[in-house]
Amino acid sequence: MTAVLEVTNLCKTYIVNKSQNNVLRNINLTLHEGEFVSVMGPSGSGKSTLLYTVSGMDQLTAGEVVFDGQSLSQLSEKGMAELRLHKMGFIFQQMHMLSNLSVYDNIILSGYQALSGKGSGRSRSDVNQYADALMRKLNIIETAAHDITEVSGGQLQRACICRALINEPAMLFADEPTGALNSKAAQEVMNELCRINREGTTLMIVTHDVKVAAQSDKVLYMVDGNIQGEHVLGKYSPEQGSRERERSLTGWLMEMGW
Amino acid sequence: MFLKILKKDLRRKKVMNTVLLVLIILASTLVASSSSLMYSTSSALTSFISKSKVADLNVTLANKPEYAADIRQWLENEKKVEAVYTQQQIAVQPNQIGMPEGRTVFSGNTSFVLSTVPDQVNLIYSEDNELYSLRQGEMGLPVSLMLASGVQAGEQISLTNGGVTRNYTVKGYFKDAFMGADLLGLKRIMLSAEDFAEIGHSLPQDTLMILWSFIAAPGVASSEVSNSFAGADLPVNFEVDKSLVSMTYMTDRIISAMMFAISLFLIFIAFLTLRFTIVSTLQDEYKEIGVMKAIGFQNQAIKQLYLTKYMGLACLGGAAGLGISIPLTALMSRKTSQYLIMPGGSIRIIISILSTVAIIGFILLFCLLCMRKINKASAIDAIRQGQTGERFKASRRIHLHKSRFLPTAFFLALSDVLNRLKSYTSLILTLILSTAIILIPVNLTNTIVSPAFLEYFGTVEADFYTATVVGDKTTQEIQQEKADISRRMKEQGIDVSLAANYALGTKYISDDGQENRRINGQKNDFDESVPFLEGTAPILKNEIAVTTIMSEKYGKQVGDNITFEIDGVRSTFIITGLFQSISNEGYAVWIARDYNPQVIGAYLFSGTINAPADLKAEMIKEIQSQYSELNIKTALEMLGEITGGFMSQLRSINALLTAIICIITLFITSLFVRLMITKEVHGIAVMKSIGFTNSAIRLWQVLRILIIMAASLILGVIAANTLGGRLLGIIFRIFGLTKLELTIVPLQVFLFYPLLMLAVVMLAVYSSCGQIRRVQIWNMNKE
Questions:
Q1: What is the mean pLDDT of residues B415-429?
Q2: Contact B690 A94 (CB under 8 A)
Q3: Range of the structural domain that residue B164 is part of
Q4: Closest CA in chain B for residue A79
Q5: Which region holds residue B450: left if phi is over 0, alpha if psi is between -120 and 50, else beta?
Q6: Which of A78, A85, A100 sits opposite B690 (nearest CB)?
Q7: How many angstroms separate the CA atoms of B67 and B258, rounded?
Q8: How are beta strands A36-40 and A218-223 bridged, if at all?
Q9: Which of B157, B481, B640, B757 is the most buried (most CB within 10 A)?
Q10: Does residue B525 share a domain with residue B613?
Q11: ipTM of the complex
């Protein structure tokens, strides 16, 4: 399988009041095409920072991140923007939508922006149809015309997922994608994420939820900026159910000090 | 803790606070300067007229014993006149005056009289504000002539009278309240009593003129004396009363009023900026304000925090503005002080200080008004950042998914402007006002320099004009002179249609015969002469056209009868048309071509060259060189002479105004864009996170300001051409114009100045968009 993301000796250090805070220490990991990896760990362990750094949203202090064969630190601002627009999707923990636009326009904005590039092969109406389909699947079609201040946190989270998926990215990064959702809504979101993963999209998510992590192929456990261990669960299929996988994961997490 | 918060605010919002301070300094400087200037110009005028003992009525008549006897007889029965003074004068033409080499000859459109230094009324003063005096062999010139010709004290000027040329040494200039104003087309040249007598004796006595100066009895207005004198039926060459003398200084008042208007504009902009900065500061700190209230801070205490900052800025800006205004006022009043005796004392300074204090007071009051929002902020607002999720009307005016072709950057810009129009109010108002304030004086200047403006002075539009000849002549003599010039030109192959323009004295008589007024009459060889607002030009002998001001004053319309006295004969005329005139406060009549008065007071010839337009300029030059004795002028040269220094002052103000407005627009736009970007860091970071490049985000910012700019430019241009026209109309009504047609130069009004404004705004946007590059995606987590 082709490696989509290769991380080598990744370090991230914040300097606050002249004192160093090493948030990530020599991280090495590889994600292959179609793989679904969850990152778990206690608060402050560096999970979100890892996600932001490997997705190019934040700068790294040392090491190298290669995405789809391109070293992120070598890319120009324009190259990085192209990558985010066409090949990456990001679901933020705090949603981060544009307050001036309706829910629907927030979702299609990057879809329309991608059309201005060369050879996209899609039209605005294709983008609209795809957005409609995504919103229906995530049960938020009725919020389309609303302002982002007029919908609940859960609905907004699902809108954020739709936005991340609008350009059918090769890889999706998600920071607590089900954090603001109830269990039913969370399962719907996970079903959608699993479906796109089955269709070939590589997935890397940060979560505290064992049920969510149990649906991934592999779980990484982070403590103090280091990957302490990994637990391979294999490909998940909805038919077989996740109870056994959850039990196995919980046991491993207990061993890791969860 | 307050001090800490204040320090933090000053450190974080350096640009915003600096721009605000600069605006307060500019506004206070201009308000302090212009209010002081308005006071000094106005009080200087009153005190100078009074100090110079300008007579209530001054009239010039030919030196004939019968005229003197008539006046004496009138005075015997007239209790309104307390005293009367006379002074001999000799009229001279510019071609009798020999200038030193390299100096500009005196204008052919100004009339000159030789006189001795007056010692009882209509006094004149030296540049040191002392009573003026001359010794034998010396000549005194009014300041306007010294400036226009460039003649310096000590140079020699020759005068030719009765074939004899005499040389005089120019002494320093004098300030003349009576005839010193730019707008007055008659200037006094002073000689010593001995030199004047020498010239006077060499001329026939009936060519001399006598200036009669009447002083009104206590409690009698100067207009009452002039009304009474008009009833005496004397052939007056020149008449001016005290109120008209004051009126001739109107241009100086207009300039200081314009400066005051500019300062008001600046104050308005400063207030808009203040509102914008306060509102945006409060929005930024909404959360903090809510939290402060939640832990027990009173509204008053929170307001005090912000008020302290703005009071500091207002006091600092006001003090700096006051300091700068002192040398600026001196600079701006330099020209006026050459003409007038400026009042001394500390009142000017006190007025400047009071104006500055008023500005500071207004700023603080305005701050309090803007801070009313603090009363509304509650703890829940703090949590939800002012967003409650409630909506009472559709908030979206346009939708991205409904637009098929709009590029995303343009959509975002348009959506921003339409959905948050209120946020852009300050910028839009600033840009509209800036555009209008630049264009109104541009339109004013273009209107005044347009050859069509000459028509308001009663001069028909033509390619060239000869100098005005003053002196009583008959129509036949003038027609003969015209025929001679036409013949000479024809012989030289110059194809010109020449027309004589006559000025003559008329007297309006009211229907009941009780009221009368001297009014300048004009006639021309052509029927259609000046544009008529209503009706047509008079053709038959019993027809006449009057000005709109006269129509309003005397309640006469087209078709009505009106009585005038011309050449001592009363006749009733039918009004055929209404026109407007800027001379004599708008009082003038146009007489039919076929009406032949016995005596014409003044005349000139206007010529229209029968040749293609591109050849005319060259032909005028040729005519000017071949007929130098006629002192030929183009329309623009005529205008320049009539309007005098006012034009150059107006142009300087235009340039100054354009520069000030461009700087302010640059400041405000830059401040606005920077503030918007600061407020939109989250949105920019989100856009970057979903794949927008820096250039795409910059394009959105630029397009947004461009949309605002385009709309503001359109509104500003419309305002300048419509409301501006009305505003100028009000000013020009004082001079006699009831319907001012603005001359709008499309290249300037619709292209050059809008492009200049656009360039300034684009410069401001591009120089402020650098922040976008510095916004990083992780900034969105910093809320």
A1: 86
A2: no
A3: 57-220
A4: B693
A5: beta
A6: A85
A7: 45
A8: parallel
A9: B757
A10: yes
A11: 0.88
